[in-house]
Predict the 3D structure of the following.
Amino acid sequence: MTQWRAASEAAGFLAPETLVNTGNMLAEFDGSDVAAFEKMTAVLRDFGLSENVVPIVRRPELLDALMAANPIEAAVQRADQTGVYFFAADEPDFGWLEGHDGPEKIQMVQRHLIIDFGPNVAQSALLMRLIDKRCGTNTVRNWNSVRRIAERCRLREKV
């Protein structure tokens, strides 16, 4: 994580900070989201990571909107079993979800999926594979992680 922060700063990211030790980075960037994506992709390639590892750039306002939407009641009760999917594609294909009849509760919020996996996440392996196959490159964080990241973003803005 230390090397990633240093490389990110050298690439033009300001005050890079890693969180939750799972590939989450907060940083400011003087440029567009596309430019940030391109710069961070170069950083990741310099570490030898393959093309299936891509940065997924989100602004703090979006994280706040996801938290405010709180579309699944279980997020409060079972935050560790509620996943938030972030997609690399601008317009992931969610059309196939119309026929989903699994036990999971699924909501879409601003091109993100928020899923209540229920008390047995292992039962959702098929859904997870379908999301990967049909929606493309993504990363998922549980509700608690997204909440912590959003809170840290707000604290950084106050400084």
Notes: The chain has a mean pLDDT of 89.
